[in-house]
Design brief:
- The protein has helices at about 10-20, 30-35, 60-70, 75-85, 125-135, 140-155, 165-175, 180-195, 200-220, 225-235; strands at about 25-30, 50-55, 75, 85-90, 95-105, 105, 110-115, 155-160, 165.
- With about 250 residues, it is of the alpha/beta class.
- The relative contact order is 0.12.
- It is built from 10 helices and 9 strands.
- Helices cover about 45% and strands about 15% of the residues.
- A hairpin with a 4-residue loop joins strand 4 and strand 5 (about 95-105).
């Protein structure tokens, strides 16, 4: 058994490569995924990473559990027994790190479906879903802002998954769920406001802001579902998000 690597980014890559060598679908998400996909990282958008997050398709939890167990990670036995259909937890005791495995979908403040979008050939979830998992949190924190700005710094927007943020996918999910739309559009606007506070060149700030604007325009233009329109009539009079419990 290979020892767990001290560098969390290197360890994330090691686990992905191990999964792929076994034909197991295991995709990174979270900050380490953003880091791996960034072609360059300006100092203003760099940060440290504390935990690893992975996604597997529905039914993929057993393979992920075996892979992580064989790799030296300790399972959170009670939590996994109760929640294993949706989420699994493991610990790297020596380095004080937690590993989350989301099964089938990413479920926190909102639900982001993943199963049909995962592939054994890719190291991370698609860029569109990666952005959505960053911005689905209602109380946006600084590390998620920084990661989102880095995504827009390094990737353009188009209606495909070819190393770009898939505006069509983002718009499709937001058009079917008013609550998700409300949170994502608000947080995109917030990120566009906050980019001025980072030590980036004017050209870089403009590029990021313009790309965020493109996604917002794509979301606005997408025809909304009947369910979206019905929920929009209620608006913020009813809570539109879940309050996930923090698991330590």
């Amino acid at each position: 058994m290979t020892a767990i690597l001290p560098s969390i980014v290197d360890e994330g890559e090691r686990l992905i490569n191990l999964a792929h060598s076994q034909g197991t679908t295991l995709a990174l998400l979270g900050g380490v995924a953003v880091r791996l996909l960034a072609r360059e990282i300006p100092p203003a958008l760099d940060r440290d990473y504390k935990d690893l997050d992975f996604a597997v398709p529905k039914g993929g939890g057993r393979n992920a559990s075996k892979l992580l167990g064989d790799s030296g990670y300790q399972p959170e036995v009670s939590f996994n027994a109760m929640n294993g259909n949706e989420r699994l937890l493991f610990h790297d005791v020596d380095h004080g790190r937690q590993v989350d495995v989301f099964v089938g979908s990413f479920r926190m403040c909102h639900v982001i479906p993943l199963t049909e979008r995962l592939s054994a050939e890719h190291r991370t979830v698609p860029l569109a879903e990666l952005m959505l998992t960053k911005l689905q949190i209602v109380e946006l924190n600084e590390k998620d802002v920084r990661d989102t700005l880095l995504l827009f710094y390094t990737h353009g927007v188009a209606d495909n998954d070819d190393d770009v943020l898939n505006g069509a996918r983002i718009a499709e999910l937001c058009a079917g769920d008013w609550g998700l739309w409300r949170t994502i559009t608000h947080n995109l606007e917030r990120c566009r406001e906050l980019v001025t506070g980072y030590e980036l060149s004017d050209a870089d700030r403009t590029r990021i802001s313009d790309r965020i604007g493109t996604v917002l325009e794509r979301i606005e233009a997408e025809p909304k579902s009947r369910g979206w329109k019905l929920r929009a009539k209620i608006g913020e009079r009813k809570r539109w998000y879940e309050l996930p419990e923090e698991v330590a």
